[in-house]
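QA checklist item 7 of 12: single-chain prediction sanity check.
[x] sequence parsed
[x] length recorded as 140
[x] structure emitted
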Amino acid sequence: MNLINFDEEKKEILNYIDEANLLLERAYVPYSKFPVAALLIDNNGKKYKGINVENASYGLTLCAERNAITTAVTEGMKKIKLLVVTGNTPEPISPCGACRQVMKEFSDKDTVIILANKDGKYKITSLEKLLPYSFALENF
């Protein structure tokens, strides 16, 4: 995302959101009935997808963001360029704290986070805004 051509960039963002929203029906959410999906693009332009996968033991539930990130890391991803997170919420969805911390591990100051909902409403943000004063490698 480089804000050179606003109309093209907005169209690209909406396409990413649409692609993520298509994943919502694949979410495994028999308990909460709260589907979440994520679309990750790494620094090499490769896409990875994630959905939330619930478990009867709620603590074992895997969030969509962490699902996408761990899949990407398995395939060799080092840095997130862009991450879209979407859900069936009235306003753009907000990642949980655990997901924010995992997102931080694979993000940098240029990582773009798009929080969206199934209706296409969205907010562009950064990890610094989502997780200020974060716990990270540079703190060691």
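[x] summary fact logged: The mean pLDDT is 94.
[ ] second reviewer sign-off
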